[in-house]
Amino acid sequence: MLYPHLFTPMQVGALTLRNRIISAPNMMSALNPDGSPTEYMVGYYEEKAKGGAAIVTVGDTPVEERGFTTPRHPILNRTTVQKWSEVARAIRQHSAIASLELNHGGRISNEAVTGFTPLGPMEETKLNGTKVKAADEDDIQELVQAFADTAALAKMTGYDMVLLHGAHGWLLDQFLSPKWNQRTDRFGGSLENRARFPLMVIDAVRKAVGPRFPIEYRVGLELIEGGLELPDLIEFCKLIEDKVDMIQISAGLDTDPNFAVKTHPTMFLPHMVNIETAAAVKAAVTKCPVAVVGSITTPEEAESVLSSGKADAVAMARSLIADPHLPNKARMGKPEDIRPCLRCLDCLTGLQTKTQMACAVNPRTGHEFRLDATERRPATVKKTVLVVGGGPGGMQAAVTAADRGHRVILAEKTDALGGLLKFTDYDTLKSDLKRLKDFLICQVEKRDIDVRLNTEVTPEYVAEIKPDALLIAAGSNPVVFPLPGIETAQHATTAYTNLDSLGQTVAVMGGGLVGCETALFLAETGRDVTIIEMQSEIAPEANWMHKVGMMQRFAETPTLHVRTGLRCMAVTPEGVECQDGEKNTVLIPAESKVYAFGQRSVPTLDLQSLDVPEIRIIGDCHLVGKTNGAIFDGYHAAMDL
To answer: What is the spatial distance between Cα 171 and Cα 456, in angstroms, rounded to a whole number?
Structure first.
């Protein structure tokens, strides 16, 4: 066994975990109007149980209507209990433990949604003008009872345990935090007093569910000035260790965008961000196991956490969104088959703008119910499929088509697979994306796919192959503006392989996501880099969490500069000549110049007009976008064959 610690059974209260992997709570918000789960939610959580996680935690259920923060919260009550029971049943039928996370928004609750004035530890008026009422003794007793009643209902509904959310700036954390709780009564001041309300909740829940029903409690550093710090965190964990069955360590604040990227670390932060906090808690706590969450993305990382003794279990959220079957693949000794998480946060930010969970690398995520009902595997008619292009879309199409039993030829015009992702071999910021490239190449190599490198696909070549289906994933080419002197500049993706040719000062023309991330990489090599952008904003196409994380990294990089509102006019030996909004000439001095003006689809009209029974256009040559679009297109094009 590659990961002996990870797959050692573990006792949590009266329950035996089959391994040390917890599917951390996340809410996909696929809800009916009454707050009950749809079939999509059942399929989403069932997939995690099928994949081998020991505990599958259903996320973020408010214990009462005053605790709602968005209109799309799950509602567990006597009306919806039957459908919530179906989620628990779907998890349990695959030998996983079904857990339900209980939460309350407190001071962050949305009055426009609830119709109630938010309750918090303190009376306050927030920046948006919302007034918060300081919870009085009667309010506190009602809140305690709400947690207890919801926990009892979860038990009756078929859940095996509950997770009390005492972190990330929500109600229980608000009372514990010295920043949010400055009361002068018995619920404020000393740690003992600030802990009083969370302890009351734990005691009431224990009374409601009984001694053999496990309670997990999530807690974490707030990472904000004046917030909960490590000494108080450790002391609080010592107060609750004989009252709960497991403590889960996290960090950050979901309630503040600048600290939410600490809770859900972006690619600009290290992996395993909370393990030292977990180790400190575990050293002080002896009566219950300690779990840890936070950018633990691979079984190797998880095993290292456990083998070092820094935690007893690991909780994974995004890694099991990217590949719910990570536990089973790791247990079977096939880590190369695990689809890697990019830490791009398309999943979480997508929830805030859409109604369905989606993943940049896994087209099935959030859509398991529908796809399980429509996917055809294997194909009823075996076809010869020619895939043009060895980028992420082409590789995904080839793998999916081969898995369905088709004869697949993958033609790539260069000498290696990877497409535009080849640059990740050099960009230290793109280690997660490199793992995806390597994963796709590995999956192609493991299948009976006829890979033909250095092969330009022409109409004559297609006529020679006579495929039944042609999947065109020819990608895109860089846009090159006809600026005087542009021939002396190089494209962003080639800069990685030509570092020795770059001087100490670099101008990056184009402040989209590619230009920004290239500039950051170059600045972190010790160069002085300036981004030049015509618009007033850089990287407008980035999801907001990725952008917040990127801008925090920008702020920590003193040799990286941003100039917006400047139109590039010419590339000169001295730098880049620009024009501002008043038509003034501005020179950005630079020894070397890099451009990132975007991409343009590779023309494929000569192939699209061929007499082939089935033709599909995939990825950038269909619509220029990010890796997620290419993988989505490739998967579904192959599924339609």
So the answer is: 60
